[in-house]
């Protein structure tokens, strides 16, 4: 079990959620951003997760700070890919690391 990874003395509840400039696994209790290298998942899956996170926010036009026209489609596709990765993460982590998926809105 993971200890001393966040503010909790002990946590066994995690969530997979994409955000800017952060690893996609968080403590589901205190909300701390966790290092995905701490988790027993394959290098390939880690790479895929980081790539997925890097695509987060593509629906925001940073120059004008506004949402792009096809925002719903972009978010939906991102969530779909996230869900696929989540199934793999869940499989690799097993029962010792309960994790949920939090889609982007
Ligand atoms: Zn925590």
Note down, in words, how this protein is organized.
Helix content is 33%, strand content 14%. The protein contains two helices and six strands, in the order βββαββαβ. The chain starts with 13 loop residues before the first strand and ends with a strand. Helix 1 runs antiparallel to helix 2 (71-93). It has one domain. It has helices spanning 43-54, 71-93; strands at residues 14-16, 25-27, 33-34, 60-61, 66-67, 99-101. The strands form two sheets. A four-stranded mixed β-sheet has the order 3-2-1-6, with helices on one face. With 105 residues, it is α+β, with helices and mostly antiparallel strands. The longest helix is centred in the C-terminal third of the chain and has 23 residues, at 71-93. 17% of the residues are buried. The chain binds zinc ion (ZN). Zinc ion is lined by residues 6-8, 11, 27, 29-30, 32. The site of zinc ion has 8 residues, from loops.
